[in-house]
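Convert to structure. Protein one:
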Amino acid sequence: MKIYVKNMACQSCVIFVRETLDEMGIPIYKIELGEIDTKNDVSDNEKKTLDNSIKKAGMELLEKKQGVLIEKIKKVTVDYVSNAEDMSDVKFSDLLSKELNHSYTYLSNLFSEVEATTIQQYIISLKIERIKELIIFGEDSFSEIAHKLNYSSTAHLSSQFKKATGLTLSHFKALREKRRITIDKI
């Protein structure tokens, strides 16, 4: 049985839901972002209990078709941004239409109506968070980050980051370095 979950956006969420289902004794085939596939049917009481449990972590079960479709859009988008380096030759609108079997126009309009933002703005927000993560880890240069996330140039990455955060890439990196005090300086 398929069960859809709103705001299940990271691996920690997957682990939390898996542990909750284990505690409830509900056997599963697989869990991925936004989706649970159980081995058996789940009763309405079990769904209610599950919903109450996962709400503590900011998630909730979805029942309406529109909500399910929105979560599928988010899942495809998160996967696209997470694997951007491997998707450099893939047009997102074509990918989304193919994955969800609806026209991009329909999906885009539905997403904008329900989420009060565009799919494109959602992609930018995801990219900005990914950029922050990569800067904090400090393993990649700005040009390597631009390449990983399919920006046409470091300048494009930089201007989009500044527009979204109000900070330059260098300033954000400097803030990260200022916050961390090495053990020998304590």
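Protein two, convert as well:
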Amino acid sequence: MSKRVIHTDKAPKAIGPYSQAIHIGELVYTAGQVALDPATMELVPGGIEEQTRQVLANLTNVLAAAGTDMSKVVKTTVFLKDMSDFAKMNAIYGGVFAENPPARTTVAVAGLPKNALVEIECVALA
């Protein structure tokens, strides 16, 4: 089974020694995405809703580069800087995963890269 590194300019470039995603076998594993605008590499302005939209757009673009899409996501992990943002994040997230949503874990964390409010990673069928 060969491992293929996934990269797209339509999502933020890695800010460390990692890949945007790895495609191996029938699965694509994404790195966690924060709300960086790929063009500026800066966090999008606004709060949790704007950041959640950008994170999901970044994941959509990474998955597209791997030849798959959000409908094939089987598992996500959501990292929130503040669990009081859960309901707002969940409303945006639910709009993307309205039908047959993936399994999900959501945890509160002490901090995220670039002081982001939310980070999401996923596993999708290739």
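The radius of gyration is 14 Å. The chain has one domain: 3-125.
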